[in-house]
Design goal:
The protein is α/β, with parallel strands linked by helices. 31% of the residues lie in helices and 24% in strands. The strands form 5 sheets. Strands 1, 2, 3, 4, 5, 6 and 16 form a 7-stranded mixed beta sheet that branches. The chain has a 5-stranded antiparallel beta sheet with strand order 17-18-21-20-19, sandwiched between helices. Bound molecules: NADPH dihydro-nicotinamide-adenine-dinucleotide phosphate. NADPH dihydro-nicotinamide-adenine-dinucleotide phosphate binds next to helix 5 and strand 17.
Length: 453
């Protein structure tokens, strides 16, 4: 094989691409990978990682306030410095980029810094250099989508939010999904005024309705302004401010407007037509169970395939694919059932399994267990914040089909609950588990009285 020829060539060094490249090389394949931006993709550079660091930053404010009831006093002003947070965040991300580089090079993967574009089904071009491969993997992820409204050029996206010169005094956020709500909580926690404009009557489409409603109440308690069933009509700039005209007849004046209205598959400039790969109408690349596109030696996974757009799913898809291709494990497929997920709002959400609406739609006969309480921590601090938990249990088999939580530590707790749900645990298994006391999580094993649907 020539230097520019590979068994397996990956386009996009994000979560899925890096895992696939590294494991394929460990299995003995000759592997190359191309990345035009920073190693680690959206998750490391413009998503999960910097977002979570900002979640931590925002949480200190709440902790400082809650500490007074426990006897803490602070003398003088508490001041938050946006530049310090950004600088330290950038240093951490640089460290992670370097780790990704080391992981790839140590595994023997050839790294190409640049955007790859197909020029025929077996060749890509990267900055004028041609590379050939027997198999290709497209793992280029997604990009933020701007809403189609007049003045949309005045909106920023989640790509920009991690590099703002200064923290906005008042931020308007459009959308009611993961990104919109996580940034609403982050900026509120850091001290901004926050307004959410959402086209739907409820936040977080697809989540359990009790969780959606409780989150809405908790956000309103924190003085996040929620404009539901509301659409921006046009946006303009005036004297450094952004002005948003809504269909409720209001003009909202803010320092920054963030569009968090979804993401689109990142197929731009891949030259898919020259490879013969056919994207779907929304730009995603359809694949079969083997992650093959319509061109059998070209594979795609992660957000570009646009079905379960979560980092750990892309990682597992990448790992399983190359275990099948190069690791002599033909039956290695991932299961898409019971994928746990978290939304890092304040309070955060953790969820796994079906929602009550899904149970109804699937005509499942279910029993509900619900609880809502003020966590112990907030008794002395006096904070008016509720924790909410819910179990959906099959009436016939007693299997726990859905676990939903909104409250402190919900993302950490749900990871463990997901193992039980994945293993097919029944309500009796939950009941037979001794609680850890005193915790919020113990409520999951002490709920005894069914609730009305
Ligand atoms: P989501 O799909 O979660 O939310 C998009 C939001 O924008 C929805 O509320 C939607 O409303 C609204 N919307 C869509 N189109 C328009 C439009 N034209 N005008 C007005 N509103 C619109 O996408 P996100 O961008 O928040 O997140 C993208 C993906 O990233 C998610 O799929 C998620 O899986 C992943 N992610 C995961 C995180 C995590 O695991 N914690 C964190 C961040 C992102 P409606 O509800 O009416 O459709």
């Amino acid at each position: 094989m020539q230097d520019n020829e590979f068994d397996f060539f990956v386009i996009g060094a994000g979560s899925g691409g890096v895992r696939a490249a590294r494991i394929a090389a460990a299995h003995g394949a000759k592997v190359g990978i191309a990345e035009g931006r920073d190693l680690g993709g959206t998750c490391v550079n413009r998503g999960c990682v910097p977002k979570k660091l900002m979640v931590y930053a925002a949480k200190f404010n709440k902790e400082f306030n809650d500490s007074a009831g426990y006897g803490w006093w602070f003398f003088g002003l508490r001041h938050f410095n946006w530049q310090t947070l950004l600088r330290n965040k950038d240093n951490e991300i640089k460290r992670l980029n370097d780790i990704y580089r080391t992981i790839l090079t140590d595994a023997g993967v050839s790294l190409f810094n640049g955007y790859a574009r197909f020029i025929d089904p077996h060749t890509v071009e990267i900055d004028g250099q041609q590379v050939k491969a027997r198999k290709f993997l497209i793992a280029t992820g997604g990009v933020p989508k701007l809403p189609d409204i007049k003045g949309a050029e005045h909106l920023v996206t989640s790509d920009d939010i991690f590099h703002l010169d200064k923290m906005p005094g008042h931020i308007v956020i459009m959308g009611g999904g993961y990104i919109a709500l996580e940034f609403a909580s982050i900026f509120k926690g850091l001290g901004s005024d926050v307004t959410i404009i959402h086209r739907n009557t409820t936040l977080l489409r697809g989540f359990d309705h009790d969780i959606r409603k409780t989150l809405e109440q908790e956000m309103q308690k924190k003085d996040i302004r929620l404009l539901l069933d509301c659409a921006p009509l046009h946006i303009r700039k005036e004297k450094g401010k952004t002005l948003i005209q809504t269909d409720h007849g209001e003009i909202i004046r803010c320092d920054l407007a963030l569009a968090a209205t979804g993401r689109a598959p990142n197929t731009a400039s891949l030259g898919l037509d020259l490879a013969g790969v056919q994207p779907s109408a929304n730009g995603a690349i359809p694949t079969n169970r083997d992650n093959q596109t319509n061109i059998p030696h070209i594979y795609a996974l992660g957000d570009i395939a646009n079905h379960h757009n979560l980092t750990p799913v892309a990682i597992e898809e990448g790992h399983a694919l190359v275990d099948r291709l190069y690791g002599n494990q033909p039956d290695r497929y991932i299961s898409y059932d019971n994928i746990p997920t978290a939304v890092f709002t304040d309070p955060p959400i953790g969820t796994v399994g079906i929602t009550e609406d899904q149970a109804k739609a699937d005509k499942i006969d279910y029993i509900l267990y619900k609880t809502s309480f003020r966590p112990m921590k907030y008794t002395l601090s006096g904070r008016d914040e509720k924790t909410f938990m819910k179990l959906i249990v099959a009436r016939d088999s007693h299997k726990v089909l859905g676990v939903h939580m909104l409250g402190e530590d919900a993302p950490e707790i749900i990871q463990m609950a997901a193992i039980a749900v994945k293993m097919g645990a029944t309500k009796q298994d939950f009941d037979a588990t001794i609680g850890v006391h005193p915790t919020a999580a113990e409520e999951f094993v002490t709920m005894r009285t069914p609730s009305q649907p």
